[in-house]
Specification:
The protein has nine helices and 19 strands. The protein is an alpha+beta fold. The strands form five sheets. It has a six-stranded antiparallel beta barrel. It has a five-stranded antiparallel sheet with strand order 6-14-13-17-18, with no helix packed on it. The radius of gyration is 19 Å and the shape is globular.
Length: 408
């Protein structure tokens, strides 16, 4: 949910629309809440201003061929184009969120790997940034909106997650208000069958929308907290239990033009186009793709059936706002309804679900046209009081964005 949109990405989301005439707020990305020891999200103790950049760790892009970490000339040239010195960036220059210097255009995404930046302590100490949630009327009286769905209590996913939901994980990133988190899903790459490095999430988990630009230090942790540890067990857990498949940095990211032009931290603007695709690379290098590493990737369905033809949708995520703590994975399964924010925009899917901020970006799965489970949407918005979630219905614009990332 918006943040369930950034800064709901684990920040909190904005609220999704309710029945016509009602008011709602958007979840914003959930500030990356402290991992109790290695990466858990719990409102923690230090703001981004207090966070140090790991003693200037090396900033490099792992080479998937031989495992060595290198800096592609293309990335170095792109940084220079925007007046960014790589050494200064890795030393903490990425913390400069001056509006005039915040890259925001679709082709301006840069995310150089900062080795060891996302260490257990940093994730544990991160806190949710101070913020307020404005209520915006996004009632669906201009289009087709079904009655508000009955709340569905989210069920905790059985551990280990690497067996129960291996394509799901948590997304970490930095924004002006703090370190944040969202949820995300490993998806197939038609250009590289069986060897995908693509991850699907919400647009608000990677880009601030009309008032900002691209977030920084975006990294994906598949099967985060694989054993569903809590409390002291999580605080003392070995890194491989928190991140069993390692840390994967986004090297390519694309979200919709509509999200960049219209999106915001609250309300429903841009929500029908609130999706993003990442191409990732492992921080520590290695020869295997993400799909090979986790053992699966979901197909993406761009011709999903209309709402009346879908029996159920399952949403997965790491809700971090109360009563959840962001450390464990949950799912909601419900028959979808329709939510229209603007009559001229695509109508969104909506389901009953108790998940809160932090679940933003998590995948929505239904039976695809070929009978296999497929990703058909992602968590975008929901009411601040929880009870339901809404996600975009993917169309040809989403398909073109997805294929463009795979081609890079």
């Amino acid at each position: 949910m918006r943040p369930i949109r950034p800064p709901f990405p684990t920040g909190r989301g904005r609220s999704a629309g309710r029945t016509p005439g009602s008011r709602r707020t958007a979840f914003r990305p959930f500030a990356a809440v402290a991992l109790a020891s290695a990466l858990a999200l719990t409102a923690g103790a230090c703001s981004p201003e207090d966070t140090q950049a790991s003693d200037k760790p090396a900033v490099n892009v792992p080479d998937l061929g031989d495992g060595k970490i290198e800096i592609p000339q293309e990335l170095t040239d792109k940084l220079k184009e925007y007046g960014i010195d790589l050494d200064e960036w890795r030393g903490g220059a990425w913390k400069n969120w001056d509006k005039d210097d915040w890259l925001r255009e679709a082709d301006q995404f840069i995310n150089p790997v900062i080795e060891d930046l996302w260490n257990p302590d940093r994730m544990r100490e991160a806190e949710e940034p101070d913020s307020t949630v404005d209520e915006n009327d996004i009632s669906g009286d201009q289009g087709v909106t079904d009655p508000t769905p009955a709340p569905v209590q989210a069920a905790e996913v059985s551990a280990p997650y690497s067996d129960a939901a291996p394509a799901s994980g948590k997304l970490f990133f930095d924004g002006p208000k703090g370190t944040m988190v969202c949820s995300a899903t490993v998806v197939e790459d038609p250009a590289n069958p069986g060897k995908s490095n693509l991850v699907w999430t919400a647009g608000h988990c990677v880009h601030a929308g009309k008032e900002g630009g691209w977030y920084r230090n975006i990294a994906f942790v598949p099967s985060y907290n694989d054993q569903a540890l809590t409390g002291q067990d999580l605080a003392g857990a070995a890194p491989e239990k928190i991140a069993p498949h390692g840390l994967w940095w986004a090297q390519v990211a694309k979200t919709s033009d509509q999200w960049i032009e219209q999106g915001g931290q609250t309300g429903g603007n841009g929500a029908p186009f609130d999706y993003a695709v990442l191409k990732v690379t492992p921080e520590n290098g290695g020869g295997k793709s993400l799909e090979e590493t986790v053992g699966t990737a979901l197909p993406v369905e761009f011709d999903a059936p209309a709402v009346p033809e879908i029996d159920s949708i399952t949403a997965t995520g790491y809700p971090a706002a109360a009563p959840y703590d962001g450390e464990r994975m949950f799912q909601c399964q419900d028959e979808p309804g329709r939510l229209s924010i603007v009559a001229s925009d695509p109508t969104m899917y909506r389901i009953g679900c108790s998940m809160t901020a932090g679940s933003s970006g998590g995948g929505w799965v239904a039976e695809g046209s070929d009978g296999r489970p497929a990703l058909v949407s992602n968590t975008s918005i929901g009411p601040i009081s929880a009870g339901w979630l809404a996600g975009p219905r993917l169309d040809e614009r989403a398909r073109k964005l997805y294929e463009a990332v795979g081609a890079q």
